[in-house]
Structure formats: C-alpha cells, structure tokens
Amino acid sequence: MAEDVISFLDDNGLQRIIFRGHSLGGKTTMQFAVQLPERVSSLIMVDIAPVKYKHRQKILELIEAMQELQLPTKMSRSEIEKKLAQKIHDTHILSFLMTNLIFQKGEFKWLIGLEQMKFRMPDLLNTIELESLYSGLTLFIGGANSDYIKPEYYSRIKKFFQRGMKRC
To answer: 70: alpha, beta or left, given left = phi > 0 and alpha = psi -120 to 50?
Structure first.
C-alpha cells in the first residue's frame, strides 16, 4: 500500500508532506515513513500503534454484518440501522459504522470498501515490519480508554518513532 501513497504523491506533485493516519491508514503511514522518510515532514497517528492487535474475528464479524445487509433502496436509513442492530448490539460501534452509510444516486452504499477492508484485515492487525527508525516529529494520539494505544505499546512506539509520543 505504500506504493499507492508514492503514486498519489507523485501524481499530485507533492514532495514532502505531513501525514495523518488512523487504523490501516496509520499502519501504512508508519511503514511509509520508515521506508521513505525524505517524503514525510511529520506524522500524526490517531488511535493506532505499530503492534499486533488481537481482535480480528470481531472486526470480520462487523464487516460481514454490513455486507449481509445488501443495502436495499426502499429502506430508510433508520430501518437499515435497526436491521444492522440485530447483529451489532454495541450502540457505540453501530453509530460509528452508520457514519459510513451514504445515499448516492438513489441508493445506499457503504463509504468504506468492505471487501478491501476484509482483504487487508491481516495488514491492519499484524505488527508492521519496521526495519529502521523514523526520526521526524511524530504525534501519537489515543483516547484514555483506547484499546489501540496502551501503555504496554509505548516502548515499541518509542523504539521506532523516537521524537514523539502523546496519550490524550
């Protein structure tokens, strides 16, 4: 996926930029920064760390629940949410997922690519292979109750991203 970032930067005449990454985008950004630090001005990582996460099955179940809906055009947004709630009982997660539902050209669709997410899930949950350090400014932001930036991850973050660490 770092190759996609290089193509985007080159196609748009961007030489060196500030990257913000979250979730799989955060993992991609971290990998990109250590591979091509000369293209990165600084990093902002939101609720993601360079570690292996253990909740793959739960995420796959969420993706499958969204795919199973087959988004009918004759249902309202609230009806779709009620139907999805039959499989996703956590109201916070359900609300978050519903932010990705859009109505476009007379039909509902998911803003995120569910097939791509399912395919790339191992990349998101596995640790990234960092062979060198990124010495530029880096800000890691995680909520107080975040499962994605925990104190036990700090040493790995500091090992590869020595000029930045923050937990909000």
So the answer is: left
Report the C-alpha gap between 119 and 112 in whole angstroms. 13
- Report H helices in 17-162: 24-35, 56-68, 77-85, 91-98, 114-125, 154-160
Give dist(CA 43, CA 19) in Å, integer. Answer: 5
DSSP 39: G
pLDDT in tens, 93-133: 899 899 999 988 888 988 888 888 788 777 666 666 777 88
Q: Residue 168 pLDDT more than 50?
A: no
Note the pLDDT tens digit of each residue in 50-84: 888 776 678 888 888 999 888 866 888 899 999 99
* Joined tokens for residue 63: 């993706």
Distance CA 108, CA 74 (A): 9
DSSP summary character for residue 41: E
Q: What is the pLDDT of residue 19?
A: 94
Total count of residues recorded for the chain:
168
Query: What distance in Å separates the CA atoms of residue 165 and residue 44, rounded to the nearest whole number?
Result: 10
What is the per-residue pLDDT for 11?
96
**24 residue type, one letter:** L
